[in-house]
Write a structure and sequence with these properties.
Elements lengths: L2 H19 L5 H9 L20 E2 L5 E2 L2 H11 L6 E5 L5 H7 L4 E6 L2 H13 L5 E5 L12 E6 L8 H5 L1 E11 L6 E9 L2 E10 L13
Parallel strand pairs: 3-4, 3-6, 4-5, 6-7
Antiparallel strand pairs: 1-2, 7-8, 8-9
Bound molecules: S-adenosyl-L-homocysteine (SAH).
Length: 218
């Protein structure tokens, strides 16, 4: 192995070790995170930090989430191999790529057309054919494809958006950061049971806000 390849392998090992240390213990999630190279979803100077457990800037003033948070959210969502999943907040596409390894079909939407275009290119390059990325205001979900078995929101909402709850299948699970933007938010898991909606508070997180309408480049 060349010195560079050696160094990359070492960093990837450390990356997986950090995930385990922070509580990502689900083997399927760890396997997906080992397979999907985070570096592919970063750009420019930030690519050098792809295997560090920190959020990084991407285009349109947004961020690719911290890997341990991606792992913990994926674990909390419990996606199964037959599930149809909706992600709100495509961003870099990294989270959607992880979900694509664990679910049957992934729909991911972002309000920024440029982010959707870049992420779609990466999905194509990596041959992740079960992901569809669309430009849309995800607070309204994706009525054409509803209902979903799992919904993951990767931007903070003041409350779990009603249209998303309505698009959750019975037995379905939604994970969403809830709280005012610019403060610490709570990661909430909502399960639709026969009796109605069940809410659990999982941990504190910090996400960019869910914003109404499409991005300004339109
Ligand atoms: N999951 C991403 C990180 C998400 S950052 C990743 O793996 O890289 C949050 C994203 O939510 C941003 O890209 C932002 O544009 C998007 N967003 C914010 N409000 C939105 C809305 N109403 N509908 C769709 N996307 C939204």
């Amino acid at each position: 192995m060349s010195e560079d390849a050696d160094e990359t392998a070492r960093r990837k090992m450390q990356f997986l070790f950090a995930l385990r240390t922070k509580g990502v213990t689900d083997t399927r999630v760890l396997t997906a995170m080992e397979k999907i190279d985070r570096r592919q979803f970063t750009r420019g100077v930030f690519a050098a930090r792809a295997y560090e457990d920190m959020p990084l800037p991407i285009a349109c003033g947004q961020t690719i989430s911290q890997p341990s948070v991606v792992g913990l959210m994926t674990q909390a969502l419990k996606p199964g191999p037959r599930d149809k999943v909706l992600e709100v907040g495509t961003g870099s596409g990294y989270q959607a790529a992880i979900l694509s390894q664990l679910a049957r079909r992934v729909y991911t939407v972002d309000r920024h057309r440029a982010l959707v275009a870049t992420a779609s290119d990466i999905f194509r390059r990596l041959d992740l054919t079960n992901i569809t990325a669309l430009t849309a205001d995800g607070s309204f979900g994706l009525p054409d494809q509803a209902p979903f078995d799992r919904i993951l929101v990767t931007a903070a909402a003041e409350d779990p958006p009603g249209p998303l709850l309505a698009q959750l299948r019975k037995g379905g699970i939604m994970v969403v950061p809830v709280g005012q933007s610019d403060t610490v938010q709570s990661l909430i898991r909502v399960t639709r049971t026969d009796e109605g909606l069940e809410y659990e508070e999982l941990r504190s997180v910090r996400f960019v806000p869910l914003v109404e309408g499409l991005g300004r480049e339109h």
